[in-house]
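FAQ

Q: What does a record look like?
A: Structure on top, sequence underneath. For example:
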């Protein structure tokens, strides 16, 4: 007979199943077959595909595969309700969001159980993490709805938003997308992932009950084909996507040139750095959270463990010991650490990666856990002996597989951590605050956790650098992604291209100007191709010539801009000094510039020069004022939201107001610490080549500003396709804007192609926070604080 002392000695877990009857009852009420949720009601249910419980393979429900007609129906419904939704006051919209949050809380257990049944994640996580964060997201954004008109001035809702979400955090991803979209005054068509649609459908029904007007939120179920139909529908104004980088790239391609706004939250291969002075036991717990939370199906999973060599052996031992205690099994059991993998296809994918890891020479170690005999389960897995070139160090496995490597020095740690095409998140473990913060600042990742991992909060933005996508979710940054500047004119009301008159006779009474060169790395250089182009004056005579830049010139300019990256580390005060100096020097030569503008455009240039000087002064002032924020995370952390320079930004200037538009685009880029490769107005480039004489006298570091004159179309393509140009701003006609979005599909760079849809001649337009936001990306740095 087992005695109490025996039990005490063994400390064995008994079964602790969560009751699933309410979730099955809800499914039963629908006879386990669903239509879409459109316009506040269900469409006729269809048995097109099945949703199964990955823990035992049981059928949960049958669902409708959204067709192009279904999508059209949903978009029309969202379009039909947008006016009424926007006519509500912010307070009224806020009340709706508040009611949604309450509804989620009131039915928290039902949501949690249904999520676990459908996705396979442990009930402990859906109950304690996913659903509370969902409610928190709606509460937080209920507040934003009321504040938005005051706090996000000069902006308006985007309109109808199409959203596509993945299966790893089904309801949480819905909340991350729907809450800011509605708070910002948009209406929504959302497509959940095909494996995990059920909580989205329950949510739709619930929010309807809570009084959300019909059509404001529409849910269409289906697979990638349905998603594809949604993102290409002409009736939507913005696409927000979370999922794999491959699909993100496809969506970039589908939306390119359509004028649709786009945010992408894609994959990652996030590093988890353990320095020798870290609290090693704490770091072991951190690893457990980083890679075995949600079975490792987490876009920001710490899937690359980088440990300082001096502690690597002891760390590995402790980690393996801890891995032996992880319990894998029925996700509805409240004492389970890891549940089921979402679907057999994902399980096979993980298995394939593990085989590849072994074949490439990695050493695979798995805990002795006994897996359930049926269902999609995979044990916690550790690979050691992984090298940078191995697949496991490069590719997102999206499963409970950790790839470990070692480093010796801090610099090596940072180089290894940044050696990835992704840049979503990172964890840094060290008891030395100087070291931890220094490393955090040098990591290329949208979120950095110091001595913690996988922390999320609605007030703190989340999102990546590089191929992890662009845009942020959460925080005020996330809200901006659902607004557009009121100053933006609809596409094609931009500038119609000036026809180039046939020039060529030199102007009477003028000697031909010298041929200005390109300006690269602080020096005037001849164009690589050795060609010049003639620049006509308004009367058609020859005003001068400029260098005809080509691919090689852009390459050199980009190299120079990278080499000048120290500009981003100059203090804000120091950058302001340079901008003030530029302003002063331009002012000192204002007569000369005004005369040049008259020559080039035939118009009096005095006001334009004056406005350009003022603009430089204004951005000099902004340098140390466009600051980050400190968020107070719910427990034990502060989050520093730091706007960082994006890196090298390409800027293609319009022809209108050639000096003012160039200064308006250049100054915010520079003020925020980026370096720039700028293509001046194709029609009036002489104004820019005069400008480099101002640069030469203003302490601008060599390479921080590079000017390449020539064909806008050709140079835009080179800049868009260049992997080392981190962002591209284009101010001009919509056709080329669309091409730029297409050319940059491969490298997923941030493009801002409406930068030109304003009236540049109006000196009150073309400046402000939007330019500064576009010139920065926010890094959210989580630092332990207090208890
Ligand atoms: P996926 O990227 O194919 O699916 C995500 C969502 O996009 C789903 O709703 C899907 O139906 C939809 N979708 C698929 N193709 C589409 C298209 N052409 N246009 C519009 N929507 C489309 O991800 P999947 O196949 O479920 O998982 C494959 C791998 O992707 C995973 O193993 C993982 O590595 C990665 N992944 C990354 C996620 C992240 O958050 N970073 C989330 C989900 C998957």
């Amino acid at each position: 007979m087992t005695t109490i002392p025996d039990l005490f000695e063994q400390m064995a877990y008994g079964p602790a199943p969560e009751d699933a009857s309410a979730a099955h009852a809800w499914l039963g009420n629908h006879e386990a077959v669903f239509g879409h949720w459109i316009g506040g009601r269900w469409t006729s249910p269809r048995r097109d595909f099945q949703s199964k419980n990955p823990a035992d393979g049981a059928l949960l429900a049958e669902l409708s595969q959204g067709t192009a007609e279904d999508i059209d129906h949903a978009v029309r419904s969202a379009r039909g309700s947008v006016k009424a939704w926007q006519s509500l006051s912010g307070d009224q919209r806020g009340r709706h969001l508040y009611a949604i949050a309450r509804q989620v809380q009131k039915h928290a257990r039902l949501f949690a159980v249904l999520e676990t049944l459908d996705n396979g994640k442990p009930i402990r996580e859906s109950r304690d993490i996913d659903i509370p964060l969902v409610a928190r997201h709606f509460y937080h954004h209920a507040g934003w709805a009321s504040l938005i008109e005051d706090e996000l001035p000069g902006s308006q809702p985007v309109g109808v938003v199409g959203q596509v979400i993945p299966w790893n955090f089904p309801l949480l991803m819905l909340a991350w997308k729907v809450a800011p979209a509605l708070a910002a005054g948009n209406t929504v068509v959302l497509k959940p992932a095909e494996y995990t649609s059920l909580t989205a459908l329950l949510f739709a029904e619930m929010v309807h009950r809570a009084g959300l007007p019909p059509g404001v939120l529409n849910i269409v179920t289906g697979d990638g084909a349905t998603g594809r139909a949604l993102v290409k529908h002409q009736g939507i104004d913005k696409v927000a996507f979370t999922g794999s980088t491959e699909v993100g790239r496809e969506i970039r391609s589908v939306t390119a040139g359509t004028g649709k706004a786009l945010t992408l939250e894609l994959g990652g291969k996030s590093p988890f750095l353990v320095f020798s002075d870290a609290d090693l036991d704490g770091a072991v717990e951190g690893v457990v959270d980083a890679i075995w939370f949600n079975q490792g199906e987490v876009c920001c999973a710490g899937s690359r463990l980088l440990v300082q060599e001096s502690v690597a052996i002891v760390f590995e031992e402790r980690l393996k010991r801890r891995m032996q205690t992880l319990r894998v099994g029925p996700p509805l059991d409240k004492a389970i650490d890891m549940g089921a993998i979402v679907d057999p296809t994902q399980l096979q994918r993980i298995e394939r990666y593990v085989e590849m890891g072994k074949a490439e020479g990695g050493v695979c170690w798995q805990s002795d856990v006994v897996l359930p005999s049926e269902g999609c389960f995979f044990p916690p897995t550790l690979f050691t002996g992984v090298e940078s070139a191995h697949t496991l160090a490069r590719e997102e496995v999206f499963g409970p597989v950790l790839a470990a490597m070692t480093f010796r020095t801090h610099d090596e740690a940072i180089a290894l951590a940044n050696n990835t095409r992704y840049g979503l998140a990172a964890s840094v473990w060290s008891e030395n605050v100087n070291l931890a913060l220094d490393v955090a600042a040098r990591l290329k990742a949208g979120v950095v956790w110091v001595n913690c991992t996988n922390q999320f909060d609605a007030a703190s933005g989340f999102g990546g650098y590089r191929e992890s996508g662009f845009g942020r979710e959460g925080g005020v940054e996330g809200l901006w992604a659902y607004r557009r500047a009121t100053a933006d004119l609809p596409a094609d009301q931009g500038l119609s291209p000036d026809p180039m008159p046939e020039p060529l006779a030199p102007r009477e009474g003028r000697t031909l100007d010298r041929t200005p060169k390109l300006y690269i790395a602080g020096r005037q250089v001849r164009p690589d191709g050795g060609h010049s182009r003639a620049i006509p004056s308004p009367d058609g005579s020859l005003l001068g010539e400029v260098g005809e830049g080509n691919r090689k010139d852009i390459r050199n300019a980009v190299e120079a801009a990278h080499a000048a990256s120290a500009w981003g580390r100059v203090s804000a005060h120091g950058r302001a000094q340079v901008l003030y100096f530029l302003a002063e020097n331009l002012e000192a030569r204002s007569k000369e510039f005004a005369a040049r503008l008259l020559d080039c455009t035939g118009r009096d240039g005095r006001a334009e020069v004056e406005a350009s000087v003022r603009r430089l002064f204004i951005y000099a002032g902004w340098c140390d004022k466009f600051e980050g924020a400190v968020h107070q995370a719910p427990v034990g952390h502060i989050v520093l939201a730091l706007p960082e320079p994006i890196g090298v930004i390409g800027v293609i200037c319009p022809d209108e107001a050639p000096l003012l538009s160039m200064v308006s685009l250049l100054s915010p880029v520079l003020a925020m610490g980026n370096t720039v490769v700028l293509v001046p107005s194709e029609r009036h480039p002489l104004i820019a080549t005069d400008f480099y004489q101002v640069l030469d006298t203003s302490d601008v570091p060599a390479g921080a500003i590079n000017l390449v004159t020539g064909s806008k179309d050709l140079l835009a393509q080179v800049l868009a396709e260049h992997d080392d140009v981190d962002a591209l701003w284009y101010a001009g006609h919509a056709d080329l804007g669309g091409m730029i979005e297409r050319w940059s599909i491969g490298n997923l760079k941030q493009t801002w192609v409406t930068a030109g849809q304003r009236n540049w001649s109006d000196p009150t337009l073309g400046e402000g926070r939007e330019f500064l936001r576009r010139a920065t990306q926010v890094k959210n740095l989580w630092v332990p604080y207090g208890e």
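Q: Is there anything notable about this one?
A: The first helix runs from residue 4 to 10.
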